[in-house]
Amino acid sequence: MAGSNEALPGLCFLGLLLCLCSSSAAAASTPDLLYLNLLWPGGYCQSVNLGEACCIPTTGVPAADFHVQSLETYDSSSGNPIINCDSQCRFLINPLVDLIEDMFAYWPNLSCPSNNGMDQWRHVWCTYGNCTGLSEVVYFNRTLQLRERANILVTLQNWGIVPDASSTYRLELIEEALKSTLGSSSFSVECERRYTVWPLLYQDYLTRIRICVSSDATTIVTCPTVLTTNCDSKVKFAPILYAASPGRQGDATANPVRLRSAMDMLL
Fold first, then answer.
1. Residue 161 to residues 157, 171, 184, 192, 244, Cα–Cα distance (Å)
2. I need a labelling partner for 75 at 20 to 30 A (CA). Which of 36, 93, 163, 242 fits?
3. Residues 6+ apart with CB under 8 A from 79
4. How far apart are CA 130 and CA 142, in angstroms?
5. Residue-level pLDDT at 195
6. C-alpha separations of 7 from 14, 16, 20, 142, 260 in Å
7. Is the domain defined by 29-265 classed in CATH 3.90.730.10?
8. 159 to 41, 177, 179, 256: CA distances (angstroms)
9. Where are the domains of the chain?
10. How far apart are CA 213 and CA 186, in angstroms?
């Protein structure tokens, strides 16, 4: 009996420790910052494997525009991602029926071999989406609306920054253009580097715009910390060419598929 009594303080301490850890884990499971990653397929496809890294999806037609890559969940105080909040996560495609054409157009999976994109949507939802506290439909709907509101391609074109196979643009000009619509401290420009003679000669391709978003996925916000770019001072803004799919090449000057209005998409 004495041994049992002596063990009680240790057990109480262990119980308290487990309680505190559980409380910390619960607090850490609620993201207060989202990152919207918008992918430029022209830069992504042409900067990797000499332009042979992309395939046209098996379903739908990707828009000649910036695509959604992900909407990620973060803890702004620690800077750490919050992921995989539900070990029993389920992804259901049927609730997205009203969004499906826009998903195919603006949230495709360009990886090879060609696919219908659903594995990517499942991965994004189960990794990040179910950590937001939003329903599956609201998560994907609001992400598509944020992509449209950011209006990256039109903004760049208004500043004379257009996709071109031979031209390069100053990174400073690209950033100034984006500040005019996104704000001065709400985004970063990311590039993929393709070497022609390693490690001396290379070109940086504009590939991704990373944008800070409120935790309810409704508003572009000022980033809590400065997001740095990995691009050099001169950047290529490559046209969209899907080399793996002859006859279905895209050009960023083509008319993009239009999202239905926010009112039409209102839940």
1. 5, 11, 18, 18, 26
2. 93
3. 225
4. 14
5. 82
6. 11, 14, 20, 53, 65
7. yes
8. 20, 6, 12, 19
9. 29-265
10. 8
